[in-house]
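Recap for those who missed Tuesday's class. We walked through two folding examples back to back. For each one, the amino acid string is listed first and its predicted structure tokens come directly after. Nothing is annotated here on purpose, so try labeling regions yourself before you check the end of the notes.
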Amino acid sequence: MLEEYLRHFINARQKNWVQLLDVAQLCFNAQMSSSIGRSPFEIVFGRQPVLLHLVDHPYVGKNPQALNFTKKWKQTTNIARAYLEKASRWMKKWADKKR
């Protein structure tokens, strides 16, 4: 599933996939599994992760790099979540055809 997700984001030369792997892995592990009723992250750590895109507090610091990082992280995690949900629906549809 991570490979399917990364295909949507890597550049034409396929050299930026390493930069996206951490976000992809976190989003994948934070996603609820229908088979176990919890996310893999919750099974391992006993709680759900705090994801930056879910935090509603605006940035109030004075560090522009931190603000840019937060904005980029939120955008990337939103995109990652959307593609993971799409891949999950596709895999469910494919699996249901085989039953």
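Example two. Treat it independently of the first, because the proteins are unrelated.
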Amino acid sequence: MLIFVLNMCLYLPQRRLIRRNQDKILHRLPDEEFLQEIERMNGTPKEVVQHPELMEVFLPILKSDFKLSEEYIFTETKGKIDQHITIIFGEEDSINIQSIHAWSDVTTGSCEFIQVAGGHFYITQNPDLIYRIVIIKNEIHRSDVFLIPV
């Protein structure tokens, strides 16, 4: 998911809001099953996943990253931002739609949702489309756009 905010650079801690539609905790899967899930997400080139020497190095790193993502507990902070935000998300992502729409709770400004083709890594599948969306939003709001991939 990509979030951009006009007039400011913003870090939005996603773990408070995003909940994936998943029945299993990925970082606890056996290595082979974990690698199959990684390939299914299309975020890691098959050439990397199928290269034993590379995976020997990167598998523990990937599993640690998933563990952090799956087990992190966000501590609520006070206040909302007073900016327009646009949420771009892939239609095939495992993030549930309620979690995506929960981003509107972090702003007193307007919040817009744009669904694009693709999964969690839609930005690599549709870079030209994402570029056009950012340019158009920049023109509409006549402001600098700061991108925050989430």
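Answers for example two:
The longest strand covers residues 85-90.
The CA atoms of residues 30 and 42 lie 19 Å apart.
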